[in-house]
Amino acid sequence: MNYKKFIIYISIFLIAFGFFSCDDYLDIQPKDRVIPTTLKDYQQLLISAYSAFPVTKSKTELRTDLVNFNDSDASAESYRHFYLWEDTNYDATATEFDYDLLYRVIFYTNEVISNANEKLEESVAKKQLLAEAHALRAYTYFELVNLFSDVYQEGKTQRGVPLVLRMDLEAQFSPASLQEVYAQIHKDLDLAEKLVQIKIFTENQSYHFSQVAINALKSRVYLFQAKWAEALKYAQKVLDEKSDLLDLNHNNEGLLPHQLNSVEQILTLDYAVHNRVSEVAAANDFLIKKYDDEDLRKNLFYKEENNKFQAIKGTKENLRSSFRTGEIYLVKAELQVRTGDLDGAKQTLNSFVNTRKTAEGAKNYAKKINAIQSQEALLKEIFEERIRELAFEGYRWFDLRRYEQKEITHETRGQKATLGANDPRYTIEFPVSAKRENPFLR
To answer: SUPFAM superfamilies annotated for this entry (predicted)?
Structure first.
């Protein structure tokens, strides 16, 4: 992305103020074109930021150990390079990770943060607006660094991503350090936590950041920084306010846990799976064998056709999830293990699995879990459960990066590729188009 051109574009956009929504779910159809000055104007600009948030994280599923590639699909040529970990040598028609769209979200939030604070009178609504803008900017930077930067290491200086906090035609957009980006993420989240006014949104508005969603994001950020106590504190804050789980034993409507009207929903900004990803990727045997006959998720999460298991998690408009309680239970269990509370972790894990297996299956699972004595063995089981629960929601690549950068081999059309253990390609390179536009990314 050419940043100066993009800033000029955004400036023109703001003068004309042609707000848009590319997504019916957000349900915003602006009627007028005005200079943003009122609370409503800035609320609409924030809607544009939410609407611009791309379906990019799920593309990482193609890089993981959970999928087979469908070469016969019409989109195969555009997505094969993801499956083969080819980050530099791919065809010009190939799709890329949405680096530029993530920065579009950041530019919108920057405008809200910079100007709404000065132009609007103090009110509860203004505080909520700014809380959401800070939280969305933090979430977007968190996605950027976990796509394009190394795994965070305390006390080590690492390359991050460009840190853009204001419109500046003369700025040099070279990457900041990873530590600087995380510091900004925390600054935004601390401000969001201070300003937020709404505890949790109802279904139709649940793509907005609420107090519970901010706590969920703070927990995830601390988790990825290996700051276990802080992460556990915020995971518990989430569950203190919202601990509902969808019990698959009593799921007569056939709901998915990440469906918009699921009781588990906290923030519904992301699609679980990009439609094209769901078409070119099928669950492999390694994944399907994780589910035993007593696990109710196998038939709910996958559809078997022609001896292939296709994920059905993200092919409809109402299948979205950025944070949900099912994930938070697994985060809490992991953090309890990491802080030495194995008994607490077992209790948390069993409470969760009771809603995912038959009664007999949950009983058998509890026997297995309760017999585990070592921290590492219990942690491994929690990551196994994360695979079963979160496959095809964009989490597996991040889990591989932070827990087990193992060797993976993929084969497609007779071409075999191997991602080695601790391979540098566990960090995705900046997209070719971004490096072409910005020499500081090369």
So the answer is: TPR-like
Structure tokens at 131: 């809380």
pLDDT band at 316 (very low <50, low <70, confident <90, very high): confident
Closest of 189, 97, 84 to residue 144, by C-alpha: 97
What tokens appear for 384 in the block? 């196994």
Kindly list the distances between the CA atom of residue 72 and the CA atoms of 78, 79, 80, 92, in Å, as whole numbers in the listed order.
12, 12, 11, 20
Question: Residue-wise over 133-161: b if at least 16 C-beta within 10 A, else e?
Answer: bbbbbbbbbbbbbbbbbbbbeeeeebbbb
Closest CA to 64 of 383, 314, 315, 406: 406
Report how far apart the first and last C-alpha atoms of the chain are (Å, whole number): 13
Backbone angles phi, psi at 85, to 5 degrees: 55, 40
Structure token pair of residue 117? 């604070």
3-state secondary structure of 158: coil
The one-letter code for the residue type at 37 is T
Amino acid identity for residue 365 in this structure: Y
Domain containing residue 72: CATH number: 1.25.40.390
Helix (H) or strand (E) holding 100: helix 99-111
Instruction: Give domain status of residue 175, yes or no.
Output: no
Domain housing 408: 55-97+198-441
User: pLDDT for 144-179, tens place per residue?
Assistant: 999 999 999 999 999 999 999 987 655 668 999 999
Give me the pLDDT at residue 272, please.
78
- The token duo for 91 is 């065809």
Assign 324 to helix, strand or coil: strand
Say if 155 falls within a structural domain.
no
Tell me the pTM: 0.92
Q: What is the percent of the chain where pLDDT is above 70?
A: 91
Amino acid at 201: F
pLDDT tens-place string over residues 91-102: 888 999 999 999
Q: How many residues does the chain have?
A: 442
Q: Is residue 262 part of a domain?
A: yes
Number of structural domains in the chain: 1
In a domain, 60, yes or no: yes
Q: Report the amino acid identity of residue 95.
A: T
Phi then psi for residue 66, to 5 deg, are -105, -5
Query: Which helix (DSSP H) or strand (DSSP E) does residue 437 occupy?
Result: helix 432-437
Cα dihedral 310→313→318→320 (10° resolution)? -150
pLDDT, tens only, 227-260: 999 999 999 999 999 999 999 999 999 999 999 9
* pLDDT over 70 (residue 21): no
